[in-house]
Amino acid sequence: MSPDARPGLPAGGQTRRLALSGGRGLIGRCRDFTRAALTDWQWIPADESTDTAQEQLLVVEDVLLLVSELVTNACLHAGGPEELALHCTDERLRVEVTDPSPTAPSPRTATPSLPGGHGLHVVERLSREWGTTPRGSGKAVWVEVASPLRAAVVSED
After folding, report:
1. Does the entry feature the keyword ATP-binding, yes or no (predicted)?
2. Helix (H, G, I), strand (E, B) or coil at 60
3. What is the gyration radius of the CA atoms in the chain, in angstroms?
4. Which residues make Cβ contacts (< 8 Å) with residue 22, sequence separation at least 6?
5. Using CA atoms, how far apart are residues 154 and 121, in angstroms rounded to an integer?
6. What pLDDT is attached to residue 60?
């Protein structure tokens, strides 16, 4: 199936936004919102028994981990997240978390045996690229992940 033929995803892509406030259950809410969007965009296959489906599911788990890391970092270091935005095209998914702090995140030196300081290293490993964009008096921290659907279409050709 051509990625352009996917129902629910216009040729120019689709964006979904979730306004955020409060602290209880925030990460779970963001993960559920992301999972629902990825299901609608067919990143989560109906038949999970094929090798291609298993590869898609691994990418979905990576995306959910990235969402968790960005939201957690906004909670711990930037005054809390204000919005989660997902923009999906045929080529990629862009995840953005906005927060009120203008300070860009930077990877810390992490000690392998101790918790903390690993989040941005995970983000660097799992994303195609990541960065920050100024937004009002704060910023958006974003990550991009290549679409597993595009890879599946290319491998079928």
Report:
1. yes
2. helix
3. 16
4. none
5. 29
6. 95
Strand 14-19, strand 92-99: pairing: unpaired
Q: What is the pLDDT of residues 26-72, one digit of tens each?
A: 999 999 999 999 999 999 888 888 888 899 999 999 999 999 999 99
**Which backbone phi and psi does 39 adopt, to 5 degrees?**
-65, -50
Q: Which pair of tokens denotes residue 24?
A: 């209880």
Task: Extract the tokens encoding 55.
Answer: 């590869």
- Sign, CA dihedral 32-37-40-43, equals negative
Compute the average pLDDT of residues 121-139: 93
Q: pLDDT at position 157, please?
A: 47
85-128 pLDDT tens trace: 999 999 999 999 999 999 998 777 766 766 666 678 889 999 99
Q: How far apart are CA 131 and CA 139, in angstroms?
A: 10
Q: CB of 145 within 8 A of CB of 92?
A: yes
Q: For residues 153 and 157, what is the distance between their CA atoms, to the nearest angstrom?
A: 7
Q: In the sheet that 83-88 helps form, which strands lie side by side, from edge to edge?
A: 14-19, 83-88, 92-99, 138-146, 129-135
